[in-house]
Design goal:
alpha+beta; Translation Initiation Factor IF3; four-stranded mixed β-sheet; 4 strands
């Protein structure tokens, strides 16, 4: 048995030891930026589905903020809780927009 193994190892050339593995192709992820209007509390579920699909969402919230401040605050608090739960990022702008991004996008402040 030992003689057989020695014969096998003598026949193997050093070039045959190297194995070349194919490179994994990176799947390009297409990111869509959506502009939506935040009208009331039920819109949070729709925005959450968009973020789970990998979209970046700009929410127009100024109209809701001007008409019903309490509803606006409830929406922002719900959105913050959902963002914390899934690791998303959220930021408000001076122009009345909320920018919400999925986990793989971070907002530089």
């Amino acid at each position: 048995m030992v003689g057989l193994l020695q014969d096998i190892f003598r026949k193997i050339k050093p070039e045959e030891d190297a194995v070349e593995l194919p490179e994994e192709e990176q799947v390009e992820r297409q990111v869509t930026v959506r502009v939506e209007t935040l009208k009331d509390f039920v819109d949070i579920d729709r925005v959450s589905r968009m973020l789970k699909d990998g979209n970046i969402v700009f929410l127009k919230a100024r109209d809701l903020q001007r008409t019903d401040l309490g509803e606006f605050q409830n929406c922002v608090q719900k959105l913050k809780r959902v963002c914390t739960q899934y690791g998303w990022d959220i930021v408000g702008t001076d122009e009345g927009y909320l920018v919400v991004t999925p986990q793989f996008v971070k907002i530089a402040r």
